[in-house]
Amino acid sequence: MSSAASTMQTEVAAAPRGRPRTFDREVALRKAMTLFWTKGFEATSMQDLVGTMGINSPSIYAAYGSKEDLFREAVALYADAEGGATLRALTGDLSARAAIEVLLKENVKLFTGSDRPRGCLIVLGAGNVADDHAAIQMFLRGRRREISEAFIRRLTRAVKDGELPEETEVEALAALCVTFLNGLSIQATDGVSRDVLIKAVDRLMAIWPQAASLRSVSKRPA
Predict the structure, then answer these.
(1) Where are the domain boundaries for CATH 1.10.10.60 in the chain?
(2) Which residue from 173, 184, 34 is spatially nearest to 107, judged by alpha carbons?
(3) Which controlled-vocabulary keywords does the entry list (predicted)?
(4) Which end of the chain is flanked by fewer CB atoms within 10 Å, N or C?
C-alpha cells in the first residue's frame, strides 16, 4: 500500500487471518458530518454514529477521540468543504456589496440543496445542547465569531477604499449581514424555498446604500 493510500485509511480491528480491517477515515468523517448537520450534536447518539459511519464505537474513539472531538472535526470539514463560500467571497477582489450578495446567494444554494441537509451546521449544530456540553456551544460560538470578524474586516476595507461612507458603523452593518445570513439558515431549515430566499437577498441588497449609513439614519428626527 502506498503512503498516500495509508494516510486515507485507519486500521480498526484485526480481521480474520491476521489481516487489518481498514476504513476510509475521510469518508467516515463526511458521513458523521452529514449526520451532525441533520440532527445536531445533542440529538446524535453514539449508536447513530456507529450506524451511519459503518464502524464500531471503539474504532470511532480510536480514530477520532470523543464524540465532542469528532463533532469538532466534522465542523472543520464542513467549514472547509461546504461553508467556504463565505470566507472566499469576503477575502476576494469583489466590491463589498458584490461580495456580500454573492456569499448570501451561494449560502442560500447550500442551505437549500436537495443532496444535503438544509440549513447551516455551524448555526444549527448546537441546538438544545445540555449544560454539560457547554464547551460545544463555546466552540460553535467561536466559529460564528470568526465569520462576524471576517465581515468586519471586509467592511472596514470598504470604508478605507471609499466604497462605503466614512461614517459607516462597520460593526452594526456586519451584525446586520451576519444576522441575515443566520436567518437564511433557519428559514431554509423551516422549509422556505430557494426562490423566496434569493428574493429576500435581493431585497436586502436593494437597501444596501441605506444600510451602509446606519448612523445617519438612526439620527434622523422622529
Answers:
(1) 1-81
(2) 184
(3) DNA-binding, Transcription, Transcription regulation
(4) C
Query: What crossing angle do the helices spanning 170-189 and 134-160 adopt, rounded to 10°?
Result: 130
Give the residue range(s) of CATH 1.10.357.10 domains in the chain. 84-217
Indicate if the pLDDT at residue 62 is higher than 50: yes
Q: With CA atoms as reference, report the closest residue to 85 among 104, 66, 64.
A: 104
Q: What is the pLDDT of residue 125?
A: 80
- From CA 169, how far away is CA 152, in angstroms rounded? 10
Kindly state which CATH superfamily the domain 84-217 is placed in: Tetracycline Repressor, domain 2 (1.10.357.10)
Note the pLDDT of residue 45. Answer: 95
Write phi, then psi, for 58 (nearest 5 degrees): -60, -35
Q: Cα(159)–Cα(165) distance, rounded to whole angstroms?
A: 6
Q: How high is the mean pLDDT of the chain?
A: 85
The band of 179, judged by pLDDT with boundaries at 50, 70 and 90, is: very high
Long-range CB pairs of 209-214 (<8 Å, 24+ gap) are 211/173, 211/176, 212/164, 212/165, 212/168, 212/173, 213/165, 213/167, 213/168, 214/168, 214/169, 214/172, 214/173, 214/176
For residues 13-24, give the mean pLDDT. Answer: 55
Pick the CATH number of 1-81 from 3.40.50.2000, 3.30.470.20, 3.10.129.10, 1.10.10.60: 1.10.10.60
